[in-house]
Design goal:
The structure is a single chain. The protein is an alpha/beta fold and 378 residues long. The chain folds into two domains: 187 residues, 3-Layer(aba) Sandwich (Rossmann fold), CATH 3.40.50.2000; 177 residues, 3-Layer(aba) Sandwich (Rossmann fold). It is 46% helix and 15% strand. The chain is built from 16 helices and 14 strands. The strands form three sheets. Strands 2-1-5-6-7-8 form a six-stranded parallel β-sheet. The longest helix is centred in the first third of the chain and has 21 residues. The radius of gyration is 22 Å and the shape is globular. It starts with a strand and ends with a helix.
């Protein structure tokens, strides 16, 4: 059998969970069986990371993506503007499968792929949106891969017949640290006797940064021996708008934020708890990474969090938006004896290591490609 050619188009502007999961997926594939094509559209943070790691990419600049603006005519225009560039890339490279990993790529690539002999794998990583354009274009995919049962349950009934659930392979990707991050890690490490509480997520509405801030203030009022760190990009201005409203000056001196993180493992190793206040998550990569680093997790009882955390066994689940309960369980965690917490962390580690094993994922995803390829050949 000839090598199967798989194309993983990415936007390239930021390094989010979908981009990292895409890289994990590419990394595990058997290169003796698969040829990987990685077109990238924007010279942003992901582009820089791929260059740094010397991963072969094809720069294919696109100025706009389907779905960025509302309105049928504006999206049709964007589709037409990008159509032939994508179409000829697929044809020229004789691609067998296009595997998309985020909304902009789904919507922009699915129609050009339809007019080739290639198959389109739509990797749904978030709750399926109630959006007509999304619903319409998803029908033209050949296969949908969901990253959790929660994501699968959000799909329209008509799409479920061609859908499979495969959990992501998750490894902690190391990136070269910026000087700002080095200084902050060094500074944080000096506080040996303080409890370090971390929030790691792109700052969008579903991440509930406001709930984390309320939780942090509540914790600090009850225990002044705590420091707090927010790591997240995207709408960072949301956090900057919220901070001036906090009047507690002592709390502010113990609150830090970083808009880009390059060494997640180092941060988790010096922290005492990860608090995830987000809701309706398709998975939540940072929770799994924390488990793999044996860092305790307190998370909202929402979305796929319920597939990751078993209350009091691998972490703690809290009613969404209940900042008082988040604070209560975080403080309770600091009082648990070391033996009990080490058992919980070991349970969480073993669960994450097994559930998100690259080996298990490799077999599932490669079998899916090969079966689809052979079926197409026949």
């Amino acid at each position: 059998m000839n090598k199967i050619k798989i194309c993983f188009p990415v936007v390239g502007d930021s390094i989010g969970g979908s981009a990292l999961s895409c890289l994990d997926l590419i990394n595990i594939l058997d290169k003796k069986k698969f040829d990987i094509f990685l077109p990238i559209h924007v010279k942003g943070d992901l582009y820089k990371l791929l260059k740094e790691k010397k991963i072969k990419i094809h720069f294919m600049p696109l100025n706009n993506f389907v779905g960025q603006k509302s309105g049928f005519l504006s999206n049709l225009l964007v589709l037409l503007q990008n159509f032939f560039k994508i179409f000829f890339y697929i044809k020229r490279n004789k691609i067998n499968f296009v595997h998309s990993n985020d909304g902009a790529i789904h919507l922009t690539w699915v129609i050009p792929t339809l007019f080739t002999k290639s198959k389109f794998f739509w990797h749904q990583r978030v709750k399926f949106p109630n959006w007509r354009l999304y619903k319409l274009l998803s029908n033209f995919s050949d296969k949908i891969i969901c990253i959790s049962n929660y994501v699968y349950s959000s799909l329209p009934e008509n799409l479920r017949k061609k859908t499979i659930i495969i959990y992501d392979p998750i490894s902690i990707i190391k990136k070269k640290m910026a000087s700002k991050e080095k200084k902050l890690i060094s500074y944080f490490s000096k506080f040996k006797n303080k409890k370090k509480i971390i929030f790691l997520a792109n700052i969008i509405n579903t991440k509930k940064i406001d709930v984390f801030l309320k939780t942090s203030i509540s914790i600090f009022r009850q225990n002044k021996n705590c420091i707090f760190l927010v790591i997240g990009s995207d709408r960072f201005k949301i956090l900057k708008k919220l901070l001036p409203n906090i009047k507690n000056k002592k709390f502010k001196k113990n609150f830090f934020y970083l808009n880009k993180c390059y060494q997640i493992k180092k941060w988790f190793n010096i922290s005492d708890v990860l608090i995830s206040t987000s809701v309706n998550e398709g998975l939540n990569r940072s929770i799994v990474e924390a488990m793999l680093c044996k860092l305790p997790v307190v998370a909202s009882k929402s979305g796929a969090h319920k597939e990751l955390i078993f209350h009091n066994k691998t972490g703690w689940l809290i009613k969404p938006n209940d900042y008082k309960e988040f604070a209560k369980y975080s403080l309770k965690l600091f009082r648990i004896n070391k033996k009990k917490i080490s058992i919980l962390l070991e349970n969480a580690y073993l669960f994450a290591k097994d559930k998100f094993s690259p080996k298990n994922n490799k077999n599932e995803i490669q079998n899916l490609y090969i079966k689809s390829f052979l079926k197409n050949e026949n």
